[in-house]
Write a structure and sequence with these properties.
Elements lengths: L18 H4 L6 H10 L8 H28 L7 H10 L1 H7 L22
Helix pairs in contact: 3-4
């Protein structure tokens, strides 16, 4: 046991910090890691890949909610409902292309009136 210090037990124990707090993120890195391991997507998953994935998910979520908040404010509402999220994601070209043909419960449909149904001037 050479090299062991006598003061090993007397050192102040460090408080554990989560990977999310180390990266200053709101989304939980540990939960995403658990889901990736349970899903058998790969035999091994690197620590940096987990943090990167969580950063991307957090960014996309923040972007979507920012747009939905703008839609809610345009409709003079203070609360974001699924309809606002649906309208925000459909009206944004990049997010609509990324998500493709997505469905949101209680999101209804985009307002659209065919040109033939409009009155002639």
């Amino acid at each position: 046991m050479a090299g062991r210090c006598k003061t090993l037990g007397s050192r102040a124990a460090k408080k554990a910090t989560s990977r999310s707090s180390k990266a200053s993120l709101q989304f939980p890195v540990g939960h995403i890691a658990r889901f990736l391991k349970a899903g058998k997507y790969a035999k091994r998953v690197g620590a940096g890949a987990l943090v990167y994935l969580v950063v991307v998910l957090e960014y996309l979520t923040a972007e979507g909610f920012e747009l939905a908040g703008n839609v809610a404010r345009d409709n003079k509402k203070t609360r974001i409902v699924p309809r606002h999220i649906h309208l925000a994601l459909r009206n944004d070209e990049e997010l609509s292309k990324l998500l493709g043909d997505f469905m949101i419960a209680n999101g209804a449909v985009m307002p659209n009136i065919h040109n033939l149904l409009l009155p002639k001037r």
